[in-house]
Amino acid sequence: MTERLRVRVDPDKCQGHARCKALAPELFELDEYGNAHEAGDGMVPPGLEDKARLAKSNCPEIAIDVIEE
Amino acid sequence: MSDVSQPAAHPPVTDWVNDFDHTDPQWTEDPFPIWDELRAASPVVHTDRFLGCYMPTTYDAVREIANDSEHFSSRRIIVRDVRPEISRNAAPPITSDPPVHKPAKQLLLPPFTPDAMKKLEPRMRAICNELIDGFIADGRVDAAARYSKYIPVQAIAHMLGIPESDSDLFINWIHMILELGIKDENMLLQAVHEMSAYFSAHIEERKKKPTDDLISYLMNARDKEGQPLEDSHVLGSLRLLLIAGIDTTWSAIGSSLWHLARTPADRERLIAEPDLIPTAVEELLRAYSPVTMAREVVGETTISGCPVKPGNMVLLSFPAANRDPKMFPDADKVVIDRRENRHAAFGLGIHRCIGSNLARMEMQVALEEWLKRIPDFRLDPAGTVTWSQGTVRGPRQLPFLLEKAM
Ligand code: SF4
Q: How many other CB atoms are found less than 10 A from the CB of residue B226?
């Protein structure tokens, strides 16, 4: 079984540092205030697993979860 | 004539753990070993100076305070010798507490998103190159006075729609507010009044002739009930944008160049791998974070097990948090390709710096343009590097010899 990852942003914790968008632009989108949410359903396309983890480990608010599906 | 550019002196510190002072020359010059000493002593230390002041020394303690707006108010955000009366709209949203904080902040966020900053980037590149043109032929330069200083001030002037040629005026006010004003209330009030008069005149002008800059944007903003902001709110936010936008990024760019001047290996790597610059910028922000904010304790509580008492200030040192070895392996080293970097240079929690996307863009552009044209430079051994005092830390004098300039 290949691993499938999903990213999730906790909107209550996110403060719009935009680190996720800078490091993994494919996986996150910003609203008009610069706060992040996951792109689409948050499923990480194959090959972008590292970027998902990188975004998680650089979010200063610990607002990003990377979940194994 | 007395020299007004130097802040007044406090008695020198002999016992850092129980009597710290962030305006002491030893701290200003090299704070890193002091923070290590304080951190080893306790996650929260206290001084009687500044009418009573705590300082969290660990990343965890800083995060706890930043996330607790119930016990720690932002109505005062700078540690000073005096506690002048508080005006309600001092500099919203940075001086606001919940629940008025959120709407005030949301108002200012859209003009500072990463996309908005992309539009500003070409102008920033032009500004950097114009500055470099001014000194590159000389073979030497004070990179703080002639480069890093003018990049953010011109950017924010451009956004606010005020003349870039007034830059020196703004820089002087900010020096009076953030440095001299720590110990001299008159200096602080004078600068605040001059700045308010300056912006009031611009507001009046735009009432007659609207523009499409940030001043008009704030004047046209409406709250949830469709009401325009009070004049004092517009004025307070303009003060904030000017004060927060200038010597913060000036310092960050200056410290980055200072590091690269002393570390040829990092410089050469960034020239060879320019894609690494954004990552390096994050690391330089962590290692040399310029901004220390403050809170006022308004309710009894504990931080990392240490009790804190109302009435005291808190020196909320994001720079010290960013040097906590429990949070960052090799915290005292600059690792320009550091992958995990949850640094707190722009603060944490609801008061996260609204200008962070602007500052990052300015730093990247300032380093890219500099390295393209001046790949080889070093500190001038005949000169002296000097550092600012207090709220914002960065080089104010940065003498360089330019070896290979293009
Ligand atoms: S890095 Fe974290 S806080 Fe910043 S926008 Fe992304 S999720 Fe939000």
A: 6
- Encode pLDDT of B227-266 as tens digits: 999 988 999 999 899 888 888 999 999 999 999 999 999 9
CB proximity B340 to A under 8 Å: yes
Buried-exposed string B60-95: b where 16+ CB fall within 10 A, e elsewhere: bbbbbbbeebebbbbebbbbbeeeeeeeebbbbbbb
State how far residue A58 is from chain B, nearest Cα, in angstroms. Answer: 5
**Contact (CB<8Å) B109/A34:** yes
pTM of the model: 0.94
Structure tokens at B273: 């791998």
Q: Residue A38: which H helix or E strand, with range?
A: strand A36-38
Give the integer Cα–Cα distance in Å for B389 and B396: 10
CA distance to partner chain B, nearest, from residue A15 (Å): 6
Sign of CA dihedral B284, B285, B288, B290: positive
The answer to whether A6 and A69 are in contact (CB under 8 A) is yes
Please tell me the residue having the least CA distance from ligand 1 atom 2.
A59
User: Exposure of B29 by Cβ count < 10 A (0-12 exposed, 13-18 middle, 19+ buried)?
Assistant: exposed
Asked if A22 and B114 come within 8 Å (Cβ–Cβ), the reply is yes
Question: Does A57 sit within 8 Å of B349, measured CB to CB?
Answer: no
Cβ-based neighbour number of residue A1 at 10 Å:
3
Q: Which pLDDT tens digit goes with each residue over B312-323?
A: 999 999 999 999
Q: How far apart are CA B34 and CA B56, in angstroms?
A: 13
Q: Which of B108, B113, B351 to mutate to test the interface with A (most CBs of A within 10 A)?
A: B113
Nearest in space to B327 (alpha carbons), one of B314, B336, B340, B346 = B340
CA B192: distance to chain centroid?
Answer: 18
Go through B371-397 and write b for each residue having 16 or more CB atoms within 10 A of its CB, e for each that does not.
bebbbbbebbeeeebebbbbbbbbbbe
**In this predicted model, what pLDDT tens digit does every residue of B10-45 receive, in sequence order?**
999 999 999 999 999 999 999 999 999 999 999 999
Residue B337, C-beta contacts closer than 8 angstroms, at least 6 positions apart: B276, B279, B280, B283
Q: Name which of B99, B106, B53 is nearest B76 in CA terms.
A: B53
